[in-house]
Amino acid sequence: MRLISTSALALCLATAAFAQPNGRPVPGSGLIDQPGSYFLTGDRFAVGTRAAILITASDVSLDLNGQMLSGATGLEIRGTNGVTVRNGSISTTGMGVLVMRSNNFRIEGLNIRGTGSEMGIVVVQSRGGIVNANAVYNTFLGVFVRGSQTAGNRISNNVLTAGPAGGALGICYNPAEGDPQGPRGDLISGNTIHGFEMGFQASITSRYNLFRGNSVFFRVKAFELLNDTNKESGNDAISLQ
Questions:
Q1: Does any domain span residue 5?
Q2: Taking 80 as the threshold, does the pLDDT of residue 18 lie above it?
Q3: 124, part of any domain
């Protein structure tokens, strides 16, 4: 058996500790408009109404590398296919994450916090995406899913917690602006929702969505599914009143 010296082991550990993720740094502008792998090297702050990071290119993998995005909108993904974002924090005064007209996306491992009046993750007219294992705290809406072009997404294993003043809705399915129809055919499973007035709501024009295996600690109502094509099964609900 070959022995490794203490100094060599220390050098290996130090190198691993300071190793950067694969890819290239996010541009200073915060705009990612070319495909590829990217990582964040430091905290970013949104200026005005623009997101701290805006992704308009398809086939992008972004590792936030444990850094913080702050501002009205932390992260916006617009008009893309095949974008993955993971591993970071967002402090928002508006929307933590906005996914707009994008398909085959993945939002995973983000820690999002607001001040009580914000939306954590918003998905609009987007298909085939995964919103998984995120933590959202102190927002008015936890996850907001909108529009008739939204379909086939999986919203799973997220922890959505209202702040001290409470929140309105944990996960909400609704029409989008200029589109009277709601999302169709999503799976919403394994989420923990705590402290909102209502755990889940689906509008009358949102159809064929399945709410399964979630845990809801609610203040007024656990579920309000206004169309009977939406189904819920195997969920646990406890009133906090």
A1: no
A2: no
A3: yes
**Range list of β-strands (E), 82-195:** 83-100, 106-113, 119-124, 130-132, 135-137, 141-146, 154-156, 159-161, 167-174, 187-189, 192-194
Task: Work out the pLDDT band at 20, boundaries 50, 70, 90.
Answer: low
C-alpha distances in Å from residue 69, one per residue of 48, 91, 93, 177: 14, 6, 11, 27
CA distance linking residue 188 with residue 228, whole number of Å: 16
136, 112 contact by CB (below 8 A) = yes
Question: Among all chains, which residue has been given the structure tokens 């609704």?
Answer: 174
Give the pLDDT confidence score for residue 11 in this predicted structure. 47
Q: 231: how many CB neighbours lie within 10 A of its CB?
A: 11
73 strand-pairing partners: 95
Helix (H, G, I), strand (E, B) or coil at 187: strand
Question: The tokens 């990071």 sit on which residue?
Answer: 53
| 163 within 8 A of 140, measured Cβ to Cβ | no
∠ Cα 32 35 41 (to 5°): 50
SS3 11: helix
Residue 13: what are its φ and ψ, rounded to 5°?
-65, -40
| For range 177-188, the mean pLDDT | 97
Strand stretches in 30-79, DSSP E: 31-32, 36-39, 44-45, 53-55, 60-63, 68-78
Residue 86 covered by a domain:
yes
- What is the gyration radius of the CA atoms in the chain, in angstroms? 19
Would the pTM of this model clear 0.70, i.e. be above it?
A: yes
Per the structure, the complete domain to which residue 219 belongs is given by 24-239
